[in-house]
Design brief:
Number of domains: 1
Oligomer: single chain
Number of strands: 0
Structural class: mainly alpha
Strand content: under 5%
């Protein structure tokens, strides 16, 4: 059995009249408070952990790097095509073990 999906591809959400009325009431009450002479000070603060700061710095550094080192790709392609490329399983295993140690 197939169910019809209504609203497929819509990018805006419908706003119910009760929701928009609530927003209008809130705006009206805030303007009434400020008109009444009451001053309300509201401050928001955000604190980032050291890890978040480091991740943000790493992300910025990565954004500056090219996605592909075309020189390495071309050199490897030539070696594969010439039959000169040999896979060293021990070297791969050593690198994987080193990466695992670095992450822990």
């Amino acid at each position: 059995m197939a169910d019809k999906i209504n609203g497929y591809g819509r990018t805006e959400l419908p706003v119910s009249s009760s929701r928009s009325a609530g927003v209008k009431r809130t705006e009206q009450s805030e303007s009434a408070r400020s008109a009444g002479g009451e001053e309300s000070t509201r401050t928001d603060a955000v604190a980032l952990t050291d890890t978040a700061v480091r991740l943000k710095r790493i992300e910025a550094n990565l954004a500056e790097l090219p996605e592909v080192d075309q020189g390495k790709v071309d050199a490897l392609r030539e070696r594969v095509e010439s039959g000169d490329y040999q896979v060293d399983g021990n070297a791969i295993a050593r690198k994987l073990m080193q990466m695992e140690q670095d992450l822990s």
